[in-house]
Amino acid sequence: MGDPQPTPPHPPTASPRALTRRSFLRASAVFGGGLAALAAALAPLRHLDDFPTLDQFLQKYYRELTPAEMERILRRIEAEVEREYGVRPQVRDVKPLTGVEYVYAHNLTRCIGCRRCVHACVAENNLSRTPEVQYIRVLRLPHGSLDMEKADHNYAPEWVPEPDHFYMPVQCQQCRNPPCVKVCPVHATWQETDGLTVIDYDWCIGCRYCAAACPYWARHFNFTRPSIPKGQLNPDMAYLGNRPRRQGVMEKCHFCIQRTRVGRYPACLEVCPTGARKFGNILDPESEVSYILKHKRVFIQLKEELGTSPRFYYYFDV
Amino acid sequence: MNPEPRTSQALNALTVAFLALTLAFLLDLWGRPLALTEIPPVDPQFTNTATVRLSIADQIAAGADPSDWDCYICHDRKKPPQLRFDENQNLLIPEEHEDIQLHHGSHNRNNNCFNCHNENNLDLLQTRDGRELKLAESTPLCGSCHGPTYRDWEAGAHGRANGHWHDSFGPRLRQACVACHDPHAPAFPQQKVGPGPYPLRPVDIPTAHPQPPH
Amino acid sequence: MNRAIRNYLVFLGRCSRIAFAGDWRYYAWMGVLTVFCLLGLNAYAKQFVHGLLVTGMTDEVSWGVYIANFTFLVGVAAAAVMMVIPVYIYNNEELHDLVIFGELLAVAAILMCLAFVTVDLGRPDRFWHLIPGIGQFNFPASMLSWDVIVLNGYLLLNIHICGYLLYCRYQGRKPAKWFYIPFVFIAIVWAVSIHTVTAFLYVGLGGRPFWNSAIVGPRFLASAFTAGPALIILALQVIRRVTAYRITDKALLTLRSIVQVSMLINVFLLINEVFKEFYSGNLHVASSKYLYVGLHGYHALVPWIWTAIAFNVIAMVLLLLPLSRSLRWLNLTCVLCIVGIWIEKGMGLVIPGFIPTPLGEMIEYTPTLNETLICFGIWAFGLLCYTIFLRMSVPILLGTLSQANEGRD
User: For an interface test with B, which of A20, A22, A119 has the most B Cβ atoms less than 10 Å from its Cβ?
Assistant: First the structure.
């Protein structure tokens, strides 16, 4: 790297012109070659078909949008979805209900591990089919152990339940102290007043710190553009819920915000053939979940020792 | 050695390297994205919200022929049917009812048809304390024995529900016991299992989990 | 005033011109680095289009070599302080000018860190959401927001200190103490903070028992103060060979003793960690088992971590022997330190934290070719920056590039 005396770019030499011209040509060749290689290196960008429009690029943070801005964005999203999927959806911004805090209760005695909840969720929430994104993972555990390391995720008998096993579906636990919210550097995920931790898919930068922080493996990343077959799109959509996601952002279970905030049961509950899934408002003493937490002797919060205090309870019929 | 020719050589080599790179980039020689394995669509049975069986009430509501449940087409109103048992006190189910598998309770505790059916009026059900119920309204009958479960069911903690999580938003459809349980063999039937997860990339599993025998 | 601005612009102009001038070795070296930069840029263009699908990462292992390299390089950047402390606190004159080389390395390392974080983002187009004021900055809750502040702050501090000292030297005047000494002391504290904050990034995650250990912070510092000065020793050896700049053996040996002590502490802390994990034998040992001996038949990282441990231990022994006072052995030792710690702290720390997943699933991780090319590209970019910095600063320190000889090139 150089001698004590910096070599000038065009060293003045005894034999004058020819050499200078040659070195100039040589420098140009290197420079030109470099430019060509630079252009070619960037050539893959020509396949970029999902580049954000100016509107998308400058879109503000969910919690700073005025109702008018929100309205405009919702209509724009509807148009975008219609262009891509050929279906005109209805995208709403459903707000939390006052006096409501959602709680899920899951009956481990009843669950048979049939994975219907997994697939109903995929259909309801417009999850990518290829590659596969699923909010619910059902674990098959041997009787007597909650040690996740003994869990089998890929069990595939023809019929369930199988003897000597029990099944535990795990999805977003809607923690009261969510580690994912704490770690997000841009506030792209937060907890709403009804207890649901939601994501602004248009604000997430895709750093995946929340995925590292989540003790329940509930947060899922779009490693590429999600794909949903035309005709399988659920057109009833919410901004913070099941509207189609884009490449490079996080998503996770939101207790079917587009359904539950208008009073309906979540999709995973309605499809459950055994009625193992229970959902409702914990602030209402008459609700099903209040009854369960009051009367069932044994119920657990998964990984309680972490202090996340999930709103998803597992219980047994005792 | 005079550094000048070396510099020229270095620059020439660099030019060649740049041009080679240009070519390689344009031909897209490496780093193509992984071809995703197409995941087969999920059978609609796994997203069907129907109950696992159709109760008589459901079948009547669906417009089924009610004569199927008219017992006195065969039976005689004046003569209550006689039950027959083998030497182990197992009920001998008559040929005409061979579609019935009786597995309700262990130790033959519940092997008497007339624990639930009214022997004097077969079109009706009856509780042990003599209350008479229509065939399509069997839930209180189940509850007459299964107290804690009935209590949970009433509170919404047992059994299926569809619709709304609070009445103020709309109806909540509660399912009767017999929508899921066959009263003659009430254990919940085994179900087909839905497809498991597909990893993002093919993975090799060194110790494949043994498939449990079924 | 105008004159001052003109002088500064001339300084910048001459510095950038000199970056394009050198002997054939300089061109060859810069050419090789440029080729790697282009390879990396091309790979990144592909990732930009197709998403992180072109990497080996998955939902199961959601951080890979990008974050591993990031973690390692934050350590390298922090280690620049290990030359500053002796100079300004203990008045070690031998290292005086060398501090600038160390701090320039810190600048290059931080640039690489920022590049590694950027390529790891799923939506790089939304980086502006991170800018305080116009974006939404989750400070102080998110450790990543702390990292953004401390890394950029450290970058600015070092640019200021190096830039000011070099410009003063260029002008041939004595630097005003009040204009850089306070910043030097801030930088010392700041250097410790960048690596501590980066450790806290992992330590704060209760759901990942492998990282959720108080010793990670001290281990980070110990390993940084091993690998960083080792890298500086190698850089100084190169400077000594290819430029006229005189670097004394004594300076290198001072750095050697820093590496020596740090490596001892590093190995000691490693033993502490391994003991606690394996002796108590609770369920949280799974990730450590996967890393050191393999778990349920999966053992992709086992050869790596034992290579790292072997390198670290050999380096430690070499550092303790008088043998490594010979500069050739010192070079070898430094290489062993750097490679050993790169594996231990990069792949050996980041990847096993994800395996098994919080739900007990075993999915391994292997970087793809595209991902590896991006890493090479960023390293080449960092080395390119560092080479240019040295190409500019060595003549200034030698006095061959100064305001006095303006207009003579």
Answer: A119
Do the Cβ atoms of C138 and A307 come within 8 Å? no
Length in residues, chain C = 409
Q: Hey, are the CB atoms on B206 and C297 less than 8 Å from each other? A: yes
The predicted-structure confidence for C112-165, as pLDDT tens digits, reads as follows: 999 999 999 999 999 999 998 899 999 999 999 999 999 999 999 999 999 999
Average pLDDT of the residues in C308-330: 94
Domain C2-405, CATH number (from 2.40.50.200, 1.20.1630.10, 3.20.20.30, 3.30.420.10)? 1.20.1630.10
* Closest C-alpha among C286, C319, C98 to residue C210: C286
- Tell me what the mean pLDDT of segment C4-20 comes to: 93
Rounded to a whole number of angstroms, the distance from the CA of A88 to the nearest CA of chain B is 23
pLDDT at B136: 86
For residue A284, what are its two tokens? 């209402």
Helices (H) and strands (E) in chain B, counts: 4, 7
- Hey, where are the domains in chain C? 2-405
> How far is the C-alpha of A307 from the C-alpha of A193, rounded, in Å?
20
CATH topology of domain A102-315: Alpha-Beta Plaits (3.30.70)
Whether residue C29 and residue A205 make contact (CB cut-off 8 A), yes or no, is no
Assess whether pLDDT exceeds 80 at residue B209.
no
Disruptive mutation site among A57, A205, A305 for chain C (greatest number of C CBs within 10 Å): A205
Burial of C13 (0-12, 13-18, 19+ CB in 10 A): exposed
For an interface test with A, give the residue of C134, C205, C290 to mutate (most A CBs within 10 A).
C205
What are the phi and psi torsion angles at C18 (to 5°)?
-65, -25
Contact A129 B26 (CB under 8 A): no
Do residues C392 and A6 lie in contact, with contact meaning Cβ atoms separated by under 8 Å? no
What pLDDT is recorded for position A23? 79
Instruction: Give C171-204 pLDDT, tens digit per residue.
Output: 999 999 899 889 998 998 999 999 999 999 999 9
- Measured between alpha carbons, how far is C288 from C202 in angstroms, rounded to an integer? 15
* Tens-place pLDDT, residues C68-88: 999 999 999 998 877 788 787
**Where along chain A do its domains lie?**
102-315
Q: Angle between the C177-203 and C216-242 helix axes, to the nearest 10 degrees?
A: 130
Task: Give the nearest chain B residue to A293 (CA atoms).
Answer: B157
**B160 within 8 A of B171, measured Cβ to Cβ:** no
pLDDT classification of B204: cutoffs 50, 70, 90: low
Query: Contact partners of C by the rule of 3+ C-beta pairs under 8 A?
Result: A, B
Q: What is the pLDDT of residue C309?
A: 96
The Cα–Cα gap between A90 and C91 comes to 71
- Judge whether A114 and B191 are in contact, CB under 8 Å: yes
Residue C183 token pair = 């910043």
Nearest to A104 by CA among A13, A169, A150: A169
- pLDDT tens-digit readout, A259-318: 999 999 999 999 999 999 999 999 999 999 999 999 998 788 999 999 999 999 999 986
> What is the end-to-end Cα distance of chain C in Å, rounded?
25
Cβ atoms of residues C25 and C352 within 8 Å: no
Residues of chain B neighbouring A115 (CB-CB closer than 8 A): 46, 193-196
- Reported confidence tier of residue B112, pLDDT bands at 50, 70, 90: confident
Find, among A132, A115, A136, the residue nearest to A221 by Cα. Answer: A132
- CB contact at 8 A, C74 and C228: no
ipTM for the complex shown: 0.93
